């Protein structure tokens, strides 16, 4: 097991970042190599071919002198042998551009693209004796175009603030489609405290596996991802069956048929942990340059998506807090207005009652104890005058229990003034 140190593209200097990006492009796309083969006779025997030709079709099939259909039986079903037959019969060359070819069969089959030409070979009399195959494999260019298109689509998703789960799931599927060999991609997201990793996306891993590792701790020796998150650097486990980092998870990996795992931390611009990006394999494997380049490209894309998601979450939380504060302020203002209106009503009532008391006090010279309540206002009150009240200025009035209580509540310094006549008892027992 080896750990690979690396600096996140977002924090590297411009020159270093530019150089790394160029190296990644070279690793991903490489340089196309021309292929050549000279075929003889109507059965298209391979007379001679350059190393690039055999490298393209598979070194194990490097047998000059054999018929092309024998070396590459898969070409018959794809129409390429028929094209050779046509060129041999008519003597007319044929050129194809970005033609898709399925090379090999079974688990070793691979998709390839070629620009090629079938040119007839003629003898001194002009009779077609064979065909020259000239071509350039454009698979890497085609894959580059696909990668750029997929990457552009991911960036557009991020720009329009698509759900993070949707972006990460699409990214994982894109890598699985672009990788030259079978790979299963997983993205885990760091908790805010950076101590645990949560499921982010893993479209090709079984559900039981995703559920089991959801919430794993970050720490030294906690599988590939937990260790990469702890170290803040890539961790490459080429054989899960023997690596000590996987001691606690080996049974889980065996059940999921996983044999290798390369994990890279996803880091923010301030080097904070955002999550991990992992590539799993069915067989023990050492990463190639193309694998590492894909990892670096998409780890940076994942970082951008996660940071944008966090920023959007923070914005929405701030807006929610602002709305809550606004609603609370509006409620306080409404209550304050209600209290102010109530206070104004009470002040008006108090002024009216005080005026009634002054009028009643002036009338007591002629009638010290009136029969009817004096506190009923303009409408009057026909209830018996049972209780005498007074204020600190010496004004007094007689009233019924209901109007006396209103005066005590609303007029400052009003008190029961007829205790000797049973007024207090009448008020208490009202």
UniProtKB/TrEMBL annotation:
<feature type="domain" description="GAF">
    <location>
        <begin position="159"/>
        <end position="316"/>
    </location>
</feature>
<dbReference type="Pfam" id="PF13185">
    <property type="entry name" value="GAF_2"/>
</dbReference>
<dbReference type="InterPro" id="IPR003018">
    <property type="entry name" value="GAF"/>
</dbReference>
<dbReference type="InterPro" id="IPR029016">
    <property type="entry name" value="GAF-like_dom_sf"/>
</dbReference>
<protein>
    <submittedName>
        <fullName>GAF domain-containing protein</fullName>
    </submittedName>
</protein>
